[in-house]
Amino acid sequence: MPEPPGAARPSSAWRSVALAAAGAVLAVTCSGARLVPGRAPSAAAASEASAPSRAPAVPSAAPPGASAASSDAVGAGASAAASVAPPASAAAAIVPPPARSGPLARFQRRLDELRSGAARRPLRVAWLGDSHTAADFLTDAVRVALWREHPAGGPGFLPPGIDGVRHARASIAVRGKVEVEPRERTSSERQLDGAFGLLGLRGVPASDDARVTLTPTSGAGALAWELSYRAPAGRFRVRYAGHERDVDGSSGSADAQDRTLRRLRFEAPAGVGVELGGFRGRVELLGVVVEARDPGVVLDTLGINGARATTALAWDEAHWTAELERRAPALVVLAYGTNDVASNLALDRYPGQYARLLARARKAAPGADCLLVGPTDLGRTDGTAHPRTEPLDRTLRGVAEAEGCAWFSLYDAMGGATGMSDWLGHDPPLAARDRVHLTARGYERLGAALGALLLGAPRPE
Question: What is the pTM of this model?
Fold first, then answer.
């Protein structure tokens, strides 16, 4: 599945996710949501750019009590425009949280704990998926929804030097040549050693002038960084805020299972870029985590263009579960399926695939809740849905129920059989012209609905 149109282009600022969802009729439950784009958007939203190829700007978010930092280009070029209001912690401490039940109860109780100020650790979400996830429009709308009512915990996982993966809360610039492994990124067969970090992809600098610069574009104060890498016979340099460190296979701390896997930790001011360069010998960059000092919500965007659940199953199980265990997520999201719509794989094969992947996630994070997000449609030019979309959606809903996970149907949320055509014909368009991906505005709308689901929003009467 190709990248969403516009993932590498700048856009005008948008005011808030609430405006993006203002024209929708929303019903949020653990079994899904429906967003009917029949109403015209609000006047504020209608004033924004609407071309499908343009990406939204994202609001800058700072931890409670800190002013939002000004942003540079976000990921592929969007700029920050608004601040995410901090939660009313005092009020939350007085008003008792609602009773929580259902498949997201543990996650929501952790949210309540964070909102009240009682939390002592970050609340992390591991969101695995395909290009809808890799573009980080939908997932950032979820991030914004959570940050509006809870402290922001920082960008979370950043892919160092991986093309085709965007992060709305960081600028990731690559100079020179950085190869990506595995070469067949979405294969269902094991490749190389299968150890590709949390994302399932690793960057390997392949030229003397290779440089990777990562710059968080939201947050305030000092941010905690952790770089995961392997360089048994290589070395490189880390520069930030006037500091320079030479790094090799003995730097940082060794991983408990893989002694060649190292973790380099340091702090850098928010908004300051960290440059990785001066590579000599073979160096494998497996990922960077950037978080706020104080506990907050962190959403790790772990999407790969074209991925399916079998993509993740091809990674080395011990390595990947250890990486996920280190993140200790309170919620694991599996957002695959769109690429499976065009597949001819028998539908009865999917329950076993998802059960295996969920078993790995539960081994790594036994206290985490789970959410399955179904596919969008592969719309046809005659306005009808792909005949496999609804049966696959129904199959994955059954998997969620059988596995005790929450469920959200993108297909139903877009309106079902005519949803893709309806969203493409909406003014402004909510779907992209390829009839697979959505516009920034469309992703924002679905992300707002998913955010409401995670927050436990009551169903409208």
Answer: 0.82
